[in-house]
Design brief:
By secondary structure, the protein is an alpha/beta fold. It folds into two domains: 6-256, Spore Coat Polysaccharide Biosynthesis Protein SpsA, Chain A (Alpha-Beta Complex), CATH 3.90.550.10; 266-290, no CATH class. It is 37% helix and 21% strand. It is built from eleven helices and 14 strands. The strands form four sheets. Strands 5-4-1-6-12-8-13-10 form an eight-stranded mixed β-sheet, sandwiched between helices. The protein has a two-stranded antiparallel ribbon with strand order 2-3. Strand 2 and strand 3 (35-36) form a beta hairpin. Helix 3 packs antiparallel against helix 4 and helix 5 crosses helix 9. The N and C termini lie far apart (48 Å). The structure holds uridine 5'-triphosphate. Residues 10-17, 56, 104, 107-110, 112-113, 130-132, 256 line the site of uridine 5'-triphosphate.
């Protein structure tokens, strides 16, 4: 598989759905069991072959930079205590990839956040991963998109079918499903009313984009909610016949949503050999009284 060298991960949003937890800490640092959500996302990109990550951060997001940096005092203490397994765990995080950070001064929307990464990305295709969408780590969501990008040369959005009552939370594509390869996107609309949605295929936090998208982003006017919408730039790519959709065959949790966050924690805890037995017994006992 051909590699994509760079990925952008925007993490500058305010995380208002998770207040008060996100008053003084980034929502991307909330853990699934004991690992911050953002680390699952970074690891997915690295598994797909990405070497260089550009994180779009903002005020109050320093914990993310610290998490992917060397932690000298902690590492020194672990070394002196002979705690080599934790030392290896901590050191491995800073060695996952090359990290670069750009700042989004104001959270003006996802489209604006991606545009902030323009100079760090340069003139090459890149992956875009939203910092709060987590896919089951057994499958690689991003790999499905990279395959579609190499097959078509177009920009790619990862899509999943959602219930009709949820379409107003997503960018929704009109892309007649094709049995042989990626689906050509004819239109894409941001957060449509269910009665006006072109389909139930929602864009779910994974993209492979050509650098051409930056020209469209730079030309954007504020869209839905007064924010600069990535969807509007994707719609321009669709009009040029340069956008395809690839269905992502992996389970997903939107960890910026409380219910999904809780579900993800339960499922990731049950994946852990050291927790599974006691935790499953606890859940069964609890379920008796529900
Ligand atoms: P969300 O809408 O899920 O994030 O944006 P949010 O704005 O932080 O969440 P709520 O609705 O207030 O709870 C999707 C991704 O885009 C980033 C967010 O950090 C998140 O990872 N984002 C969003 C930015 O980087 N900048 C923005 O201006 C908006």
């Amino acid at each position: 598989m051909n590699k994509l060298r760079k990925a952008v991960i925007p993490v500058a949003g305010l995380g208002t759905r998770f207040l008060p937890a996100t008053k003084a800490q980034p929502k991307e640092m909330l853990p699934l069991v004991d690992k911050p959500v953002i680390q699952y996302v970074v690891e997915e990109a690295v598994r797909a072959g990405v070497e260089s990550l550009v994180l779009v951060t903002g005020r109050g997001k320093a914990a993310i930079e610290n998490h992917f940096d060397v932690a000298f005092e902690l590492e020194d203490t672990l070394r002196r205590r002979g705690n080599l397994s934790d030392l290896e765990l901590v050191q491995g995080i800073a060695q996952l990839a090359q990290f670069a950070y750009v700042r989004q001064g104001e959270p003006l929307g996802l489209g604006h956040a991606v545009l902030c990464a323009r100079h760090a990305v340069g003139d090459e295709p890149f992956a875009l991963l939203l910092g709060d969408d987590v896919f089951d780590e057994a499958d690689s969501a991003l790999e499905a998109l990279i395959t579609a990008h190499h097959a078509t040369g177009c920009s790619v959005v990862g899509v999943q079918e959602v219930p009709l009552e949820h379409v107003s939370r997503y960018g929704i594509v009109n892309a007649p499903p094709a049995s042989d390869g990626p689906w050509k996107v004819t239109t894409i609309v941001e957060k449509p009313d269910p009665s006006a949605a072109p389909s139930r295929w929602a864009v779910v936090g994974r993209y492979v984009l050509e650098p051409r998208v930056f020209d469209h982003l730079a030309a954007l006017e504020p869209g839905v909610g007064g924010e600069y919408q990535l969807t509007d730039a994707l719609a321009a790519l669709a009009r040029e016949g340069r956008l395809v959709a690839a269905p992502i065959p992996a389970k997903r949790w939107d960890t910026g949503n409380k219910l999904d966050y809780l579900k993800a924690n339960v499922e990731y805890a049950l994946k852990r050999a050291e927790l599974r037995g006691d935790f499953a017994a606890y859940l069964k006992d609890l379920a008796k009284d529900l």
